[in-house]
Design goal:
- This protein is of the alpha/beta class.
- A five-stranded mixed beta sheet has the order 2-1-5-3-4, with no helix packed on it.
- Bound molecules: zinc ion.
- Zinc ion binds next to loops.
Length: 234
């Protein structure tokens, strides 16, 4: 049995070369669900959205019939409520950028795949990874396969994919450990400040979890520029 498949960009990135950006015919067995067929072509279930068969929207658990015309669209649902993520080991720089933008991002460089899947499921976090096999695990409900390789472009990609442009809250979160920052009195941290910092700055924030101190020093302008440029591209 055969059906014709058309994948809408950016899903073409997942497909083997001969199937990219062109409708193609695929043989299937009667017991295979659409979801199974689509994932067997390399597209994780987290990353596709609407599926049309002969122009009608269908559930991905459906099966196909001979000669069906299938069109698969990328998932484009925007986040309702607070966006919360867990990132795989290779996305450390992206985690820092997303925290800088104010988003809740769990990241450790030693998370194992099973642990990532468990945290994503139990805490209802969106799993961000470049490993599409990880996203094909059944338990993963919310996830997204990062296409870009440059971390800044990855951050833009996440903002766009989840419609987060309006939720950017810079400098609210610890870049090291993800905790929300608190205002702290200068007198309370005076002994931890460098001499020039003591002189030039009055406003400080502290991470209640790891005690890292933040202030709007020379790095601040640079970071703000970067945030504005990322938000503008999204
Ligand atoms: Zn911290």
């Amino acid at each position: 049995m055969k059906a014709t498949f058309t994948f809408i960009a950016p899903l073409n990135d997942f497909l083997p070369r001969q199937y990219k950006s062109t409708p193609f015919s695929l043989e299937f067995a009667p017991h295979q669900s659409l979801k199974h067929l689509i994932e067997s072509l390399g597209v994780p279930h987290t990353d596709f959205g609407q599926v049309l068969v002969n122009g009608q929207e269908v559930d991905a658990s459906n099966r196909l019939r001979e000669g069906d015309q299938v069109t698969i669209y990328p998932a484009n649902s925007h986040m309702e409520g607070e966006a919360r993520f867990v990132l795989d080991n290779h996305l450390g720089q992206l985690a820092t950028y997303l925290r800088m933008l104010g988003f809740d991002c769990l990241y450790r460089n030693d998370y194992q795949d099973d642990e990532l899947a468990r945290v994503a499921t139990q805490e209802e976090r969106v799993l961000l990874t470049r490993d599409r096999r990880l996203l094909m695990r059944k338990v993963i409900r919310l996830g997204y396969c990062i296409h870009q390789t440059d971390p800044r472009q990855q951050a833009v990609e996440v903002l766009k994919r989840f419609g987060l442009q309006g939720q950017v809250r810079p400098f609210q979160r610890c870049l090291r450990c993800n905790s929300p920052l608190q205002v702290v009195n200068k007198e309370d941290i005076l002994e931890r400040l460098e001499p020039l910092t003591k002189i030039y700055y009055e406003e400080f924030h502290i991470c209640p979890n790891c005690s890292q101190i933040y202030w709007k020093g020379s790095h601040y302008g640079h970071m703000l520029e970067m945030i504005e440029s990322m938000a503008a591209q999204a």
